Amino acid sequence: MSWITLTRARPARSLWPVVRRSVLGLALPALLLVVWQGICVARLLPLYILPSPVAVIARFATELSGGQFGTDVLASLARVLKGFFLGSAAGLSFGVLLGLSRWAERLLAPLFLAYRQIALFAWVPLLSMWFGGGETGKIAFVTLSAFAPVVVNTWRAIRAIPDSLNELGAVLTFDRLDQISLIALPGALPGIVTGVRSALIYAWLATVGAELFLDIAPGMGGRLNEGRDKFEIDLMLVALFVLTGLGLVFSQTAALIERRLVTWRLG
Amino acid sequence: MSGSRSAVWDRASASWPGRAVIGLIVPALLGVVWLITAQKGWLPDQLLPSPVAVWQALVDTATSGDLWTNSLISVTRVGEGFAIGAALGLILGTVLGLSRRARELVDPLFLLLAQVPPLGLIPLAILALGIDEAMKVAVIAWASFIPVVLNVKQGVGDVPQSLQELAEVLTFGPWYALTRVVLPAAVPPIFTGLREGLANAWQTMVAAELFASTEGLGYMLALGRQLFQFDMVLAVVLVLGVVGLAVNGTLALVERRLLRWQGQAA
Amino acid sequence: MNSHVGNCSVDHLIDHLAFEAIGVSPALEIDHVSKTFRVGGRSLEVLRDIKLSVRTGEFVAIVGASGCGKSTLLRLVLGLDTDYEGEIRLEGQRVRRPGLDRGMVFQEHRLLPWLTAAGNVAAALRRSGLPSRERKRLVAEHLTLVGLANFARAWPRQLSGGMSQRVAIARALVNRPRFLLLDEPLGALDALTRLRLQDELARIVHRENSTVLLVTHDVDEAVFLADRIVVLQPDPGRVSRIVKIDLDRRNRDRSAPAFLRLRDEVLDVLGVRHTAREAAA
Description:
heterotrimer, B: mainly alpha, MetI-like fold, 12 helices, 83% helix, C: alpha/beta, six-stranded mixed sheet, 9 helices, 36% helix
């Protein structure tokens, strides 16, 4: 294959594979953009249904310079983080309880597993009735979304610690606190990190959902709603792209943190 | 020293009927507290309806047939969307798993697409496809598609070199090698992807129906919310739990049968 | 040279009388201990009527084939399991739970992978109530004792099997426990490391003057280290015989005739043919 010889012929240029990969990777999106623009230019669809990429970028620039965008992004981020930390903290405690105590596990796990069967968004109507559609309701929903993944991963990770190590704690006459801080938590750390990482992603998805379903307020989901209400598709697309971008930032950050913590353990 | 008391509990928790009973203690206690709270009127009805009212709402919708019709509609939607999304996902995932070139071309775009929140797509999907069946099935299919592709791609790509070489040695043609060696070897990750896809599909169905629907379990939820019929909302939440369990449980059973050769490991 | 003890109950009587004479309770007394496990609905008798008195500073080895309950016995002495018949007394007090007066070395080193060697040894001092400076001193002292002073900051995954086990030994000793319990501590190591660590162990135990209970399936090891060897026979675990080793503990030669004779005697009790001539006969 000509690609291979081409690569082999340039051993000194270590940049080439990177360049090649970026070019290939961008090929498809670029193609889609061109097709999109083409559809608009050819007026295959009315412009109010599908604005052109140029129009979308223009709208993005307008919104950005308007200054409101910054507030929106920060508002969404604040919700994600608040709900994420609350949910993760609660999830960690509950997960540790289920992981360490056979009795807690027998009594509470079935109820928890039953709760998990209920789709997350089913709680939206209930939460909005209890907390209203305002900030509290939204954060309650995000908290709920972060809770379950942390519980499950923490619980499983603690149970996976070999009995020999747990027994060691008994031999060294560790009390509950020692057992948790010296054996359970360090031993379960990789699993916990996986759970926390999932929780961050779920919290993000839940924030978007909460913003879409509950009262309109500053936030990217709110802008999406606004676009829908005013039938401004360019605004909707801008909001969607920003949401996607933020989602990318979240998932990559989560993955990076996980990788860092793991190498610290192994390296 | 431990005494006979804990021995009784230990023996009770050793068998599954015993475990089931123990697992019901806390829910039963909560149920009793709930009942008493409602009877004594400690919390207003808007905050916490009486379990009797919830039960009544359940019975009413069941006898009127609404419960079954809506449940069936929701489950069918999930089935259709999931089937489409999973089938497409299997195909794309296999292609990506097998071909490095395809991965180089598609991976970056896919990474981006995977971040698009299905919920965020709903408003756009409504504008494009209306609020009918097509929109919901499309969004559900999308939600199922992504995890299936990711897991199948990884599973197919991870099939050990040794197995692929075996297929060559046995002079299997490419189709035969694919269906008899590669795919069966990748079944565990494929099923992980299917499980995730189904879970996603289920969640998206509820969200989509909440958002814009005239029938289905999510619609019942939205209706109850609008009419401030809290007992109805709670009843539907419980039903959702049960149906969700049934749907996921079925997939789990299928998976266990197909993975019999793995033994207890999985 | 070696006293041929024919009947273990006689041996016990002698010990008991000796204690009575001095007016001191034995350091460790295992009094008619029996243990039955329930496995899948059926009862499995693991130990039956074990009687043993151990003096302070004595080194007792327990040998026997697998399944004779040696490890179980050790766990009962440690206090990890309190569900048995009979009594186990340490200096007159019943054993109810693990304590820092008993240090334990397992067959697997069981080092916590997320703590350094020093951290692992220090973990045993967690409940000791000692001030931090004292703890650091003890940790350093014991790592030096096992010859690993330079590896204090190493992670367990960086240590070889023998080194890890030495850290485990340091951990078991750092509390200056009166009793040292060893459950086949050298079983997972290669033959050369095993021999070397046996020498180490003899040296360390002599220095600390601990009372030691060693469980092993290696008869040579038992003869090399112990004052007395308790031979257990399996199904269920019972004391078959107790063999006294009247050799100088500081100075045992694995090739000396006396050593070999004692070893053969133990193997005899275990019912293992140990010379080609016997096998041919």
